[in-house]
């Protein structure tokens, strides 16, 4: 398949319970403009060249779905689904997204976390371009200051293994297995930051994430 016609899906995982920030769900927390975190993340992903765009919900799916739509332009095609076994761990949410993306003619998939509101479209497009230039590699990972970040782009050949992961560690075991052979892209701090505590949500509420 030529590089000009290769597609890479984006899978946004938004099914977690956000127990560390309870009673506030971090994906519903607003930035300084009032835009929910999940919408901030999706605004960047929806503007990228990734296709198709798959969003996986679970906990409080109705509320988070409504918030997510605020970050997606009406003309941007996307697929929303609910991970039936999301309560058993991140791996089941990941499997649901991979299964949906795998039904399309894609060479790989970007696995994006819903709580990455400062991720940029430019980084996502750069990761896709790097992968398309070397589609025989297991994937692409962003690196900031020597640390691996998110999102991770996975080759389609690893979709079966991604769907077979267990527990709440996502694809961590596969990263240990294939990490040395993955392509690397230098990235900024937003690829390694998190908003997993009430204090960090306060920080987020002061951020302007708009372009």
From TrEMBL:
Name of this chain's protein: Nucleotidyltransferase family protein
Keyword set, alphabetical order: Magnesium
Phylogenetic lineage: Bacteria, Pseudomonadati, Pseudomonadota, Alphaproteobacteria, Acetobacterales
Organism of this sequence: Komagataeibacter medellinensis
Keyword Thylakoid: no
Gene3D superfamilies, sorted: Spore Coat Polysaccharide Biosynthesis Protein SpsA, Chain A
Alphabetized InterPro entries for the sequence: MobA-like_NTP_Trfase, Nucleotide-diphossugar_trans
MobA-like NTP transferase domain residues: 10-178
